[in-house]
């Protein structure tokens, strides 16, 4: 392990991976690790999820990253806004609050899984 990596890990408490997963992420930190730099991803502000706004999310159409200290954690993003399941515009809009709020990938509406009945067949021999 390099000296820089050791210093980084020593500053973190507990499991470093768990700490990274639990910390707040801006939109570009979420999109940076997705395929095609997040284009086509469906993202949501965490506060919308916490307030129970079902079907409210952004579908990312275009992303321009700006590297800060070699990390693409700033930039601009455009997409289609869906509110309560309905698309609000036909042209991509610039996504506001990309750095201000905590973001995550949209998980979709939480519906209970339906149990599929097991079909049973009986055969009789004559």
Automatic annotation (TrEMBL):
One of its GO terms (molecular function) is structural constituent of ribosome. GO terms for cellular component: mitochondrion. Pfam families: MRP-S34. It comes from the Eukaryota. InterPro entries: Ribosomal_mS34. This is Uncharacterized protein. It comes from Mycoemilia scoparia.
């Amino acid at each position: 392990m390099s000296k820089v990596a050791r210093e980084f890990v020593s500053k973190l408490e507990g499991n470093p991976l768990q700490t990274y997963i639990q910390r707040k992420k801006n939109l570009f930190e979420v999109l940076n690790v997705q395929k095609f730099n997040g284009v086509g991803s469906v993202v949501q502000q965490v506060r919308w999820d916490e307030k129970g706004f079902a079907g409210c999310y952004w579908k990312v159409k275009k992303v321009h990253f700006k590297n800060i200290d070699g990390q693409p954690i700033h930039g601009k993003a455009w997409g289609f806004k869906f509110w309560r399941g309905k698309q609000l515009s036909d042209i991509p809009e610039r996504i506001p609050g990309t750095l201000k709020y905590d973001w995550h990938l949209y998980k979709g509406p939480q519906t209970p899984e339906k149990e599929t009945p097991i079909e049973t067949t009986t055969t009789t021999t004559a």
